[in-house]
């Protein structure tokens, strides 16, 4: 299958990624791929998990532990600035979800295929000419780390690649499904964190300036920094859409803010299936990967209702909690799917910019 997968990847680069890059920044309007060769080494599937519970009978859900270490040749250029760069090798490791739906009674038995990562994969890229690329106006504030994060997040929910296998499939419903629910995260406080700041060349240990990074898929929130406190109180609230369960997780990392590189204070991963079952969790969680520290969270699972019958009750409830979030708590969800456009006026902005 690998040669055909490579053909699909090249098509994805040229028809999806290239236009997206051009539209992201005026300085990238002449961006293009001049060569795309993914190489002959196929990706490895190190493990497969198939879900049999809480799954619609017209779908099959697979989680693939994938690993790809390949020498490739991807060349790109930005003609406007006579800039060229490329990629010599790529490594990617992570859990890819594959959904086969809908199952149908005729060949090929599967209506469409959807691919995405449940959480940000480990991605390493060996660049050539990256310095030239970062000299382009509008990109000089970026770094290779930020670029990797942008690419990784493009692969993670709610972004997905959907390939129809029969013409009758409603592709929009598969590519942009309604979320399974909303996770309301009360990021309250922590206790007994490690003191990372030191004085007198490390002889005296001080406190930390802790903050948290909260992730659900590619939705990322960052808390405020609490200065010089090993028992910080944040009392912040975040709301994240959950598109897939089982499988999606709440990921939290705590850091100590420093002028150069922030120190790690612990992490936490919570399976959202447990939150959905309980509907409300209010607990102290022991931090992983560190010797000490606890984090106090209150997690609410909110189900989407098809009608507005309970809206008044919800509004009354969130008014009582209106001070908990900077922009207020949500009472409803608006989903807008932009399908297509026709007869748009011709734009001459690009030509004017080039001629000027």
UniProtKB/TrEMBL annotation:
Entry's SMART domains? C2
Gene Ontology molecular-function annotations: calcium ion binding; calcium-dependent phospholipid binding; phosphatidylcholine binding; phosphatidylethanolamine binding; phosphatidylinositol binding
Q: Which residues form the SMP-LTD domain?
A: 1-166
Write down the CDD domains for this protein, in alphabetical order: C2A_C2C_Synaptotagmin_like
Q: Which residues form the C2 domain?
A: 165-285
Q: What topology in the membrane does the UniProt record assign?
A: Peripheral membrane protein; Multi-pass membrane protein
Tell me which domain of life the UniProt entry assigns to the organism this sequence originates from.
Answer: Eukaryota
InterPro entries recorded = C2_dom, C2_domain_sf, Ext_Synaptotagmin_C2A, Extended_Synaptotagmin, SMP_LBD, Synaptotagmin_SMP
**What's in the keyword line of the UniProt record?**
Calcium, Cell membrane, Endoplasmic reticulum, Lipid transport, Lipid-binding, Membrane, Metal-binding, Repeat, Transmembrane, Transmembrane helix, Transport
Pfam short name (any one): C2
Q: Which GO terms describe its cellular component?
A: endoplasmic reticulum membrane; plasma membrane
Please provide the Gene Ontology terms (biological process) for this protein. Answer: endoplasmic reticulum-plasma membrane tethering; lipid transport
| Protein's cellular compartments | Cell membrane; Endoplasmic reticulum membrane
- What family is reported? Belongs to the extended synaptotagmin family.
UniProt name for this protein: ESYT2 protein
What organism is recorded for this protein? Erythrocercus mccallii
